[in-house]
Amino acid sequence: WSTLPPITAGALSTATLMYPVDLLRALKMSAAAEGKGGSTVTLIKNFYATHGLKGFATQGVVPEMVRATYMRVLKFFLFPITHQAMFNKPENKGSGLTKAIAAGVASLPEGFTIQPIEVSKIALQLDKEKKFNNQAGAVIRDILKTRGWTGLFIGYFGIQYRQTSWTAAYFASLQYFSEQSKAVLPADWKMTQNLAGGFAAGMFGAIFNTPGDVIRSSQQKAILAAEPIKHPFSVGLCASGVKDFFAMGSKIVAANGIGGLYMGFGFKAMHLGGSGALLAMLIPWFKGMMGVK
């Protein structure tokens, strides 16, 4: 439990610094099914016209701070515990495969629990009419009223795929990239070594999770823009969510080719690479500052 304070401090700092990049990522990815109408310049102009310059740092920022901080704390706290429980050895003695498996399992709770926050965040980031006045609570109340509690889990399959794929790839490759950065950079550049290794591992993870994020962003945008319908929970509803995920993926590929699944990859790579770098640097730094091993 002593690791929670430094992990939390590192996660909160990372979420704050990376929010503007995350916003641009969300705008670009949610427009993946729109072809030319979703160009980066057009998206930025439209967002600026609606929310002003301040919106790039504030629109949807509260749910993002809550989501990003919580999920990273959970991720970095549960991963070593899960690895020890599954393979009876600490993560620093594990292989790339054992780390990937343990990280994937450790990501399951975060994917499920951040889902309602994800829906409220993307609804605020795409709120051109300012219907919700940048209030996550207003989004959640509206969804519960018009779509029921299952409406909070729109696009869940894509969220879980995104969380699991990046977490597995990041932890599986972090040690390797860290060792490479130490071989290239001077020995006394410790923080820079951590930054470089974390950035490379974060970008590596982005290669795997970007298609899922593009699809779920477009899926959530399309559903939230449609006439609300209340769907009671059922196995069929879960199955249709998976089917609709792949249907949206097929639509994106048909409109833009395979490259359409990587729309916004530049922002995604900057976001996850930057997040991975900051986490790899800040968590050890906060641990040292707080006297935690």
Overall description:
The chain has 293 residues and is an all-alpha fold. The chain is built from 11 helices and no strands. The chain has helices spanning 4-30, 40-51, 55-58, 61-87, 96-106, 108-125, 136-146, 156-184, 190-225, 235-256, 265-290. The longest helix has 36 residues, at 190-225. The protein is globular. The model has no long low-confidence stretch (mean pLDDT 86).
Structural class: mainly alpha
Q: Give the overall silhouette.
A: globular
Total DSSP helices: 11
Major β-sheet profile: none
Instruction: Name the beta content range.
Output: under 5%
**Order of helical and strand elements:** HHHHHHHHHHH
Give the fraction of residues assigned to helices.
over 70%
**End-to-end distance, in Å?**
11 Å
Per-chain topology:
Elements: H1 4-30, H2 40-51, H3 55-58, H4 61-87, H5 96-106, H6 108-125, H7 136-146, H8 156-184, H9 190-225, H10 235-256, H11 265-290
Helix pairs in contact: 1-4, 1-9, 1-11, 4-5, 4-6, 5-8, 6-7, 6-8, 8-9, 9-10, 9-11
Briefly say what this structure is.
The protein has about 290 residues and is an all-alpha fold. The chain has helices spanning about 5-30, 40-50, 55-60, 60-85, 95-105, 110-125, 135-145, 155-185, 190-225, 235-255, 265-290.
